[in-house]
Amino acid sequence: MNLDKYTAQLRENLIAAAALGDEKTQSTAAALAAATENSARLVLLAALSELANEVSAAVGDRTVHISIDGTDAHVDVRKAAAAEEEHQPTFEEMTGDISRVTLRLVEQIKSRAEEAAAQSGQSLNSWMATAVQGALRDQMKKGGPGRWDMPREPREPKNPEE
């Protein structure tokens, strides 16, 4: 929506109102009309934003956003984020059977992991489990890929030794 047609109408109305006055009044009105165009655009944007908020509150499942680009106002209607999406368990809520995993590490990384485990007073196995849990928790907080309550299909190994 081009706001220029509205600010131009305001300018023309101000100039028309001053037409009854003398030449100095008319030139003053024309200068004031030109000076108020940017302010009028901001007032229109504020009114449109308030209208967008009222419409968003009324429709509930959609949100209306107004943005301005130069003299154009753009309306963007988006599906509202579900206030209560399906419950996804937190990492702490997850329970289940313990699974055994074989992990191959470069010796230098294994040594550093053993040192870190010893410093924290844990076995290497416990330390690694804690590290994986922390990484998964961070990924969940960032909205990482996948859902924790829906297992993924196992991938095919790239080589037979995997």
Secondary structure elements and their pairing?
Layout: H1 4-18, H2 23-35, H3 37-59, E1 62-69, E2 72-79, H4 107-119, H5 124-141
Report on this structure:
By secondary structure, the protein is mainly α. It folds into two domains: 4-79; 91-141, Arc Repressor Mutant (Orthogonal Bundle), CATH 1.10.1220. It has helices at 4-18, 23-35, 37-59, 107-119, 124-141, and strands at residues 62-69, 72-79. Strands 1-2 form a two-stranded antiparallel ribbon. The longest helix has 23 residues, at 37-59. It is rod-shaped, with a radius of gyration of 32 Å. It starts with a helix and ends in a 21-residue tail after the last helix. The relative contact order is 0.08. The model has no long low-confidence stretch (mean pLDDT 78).
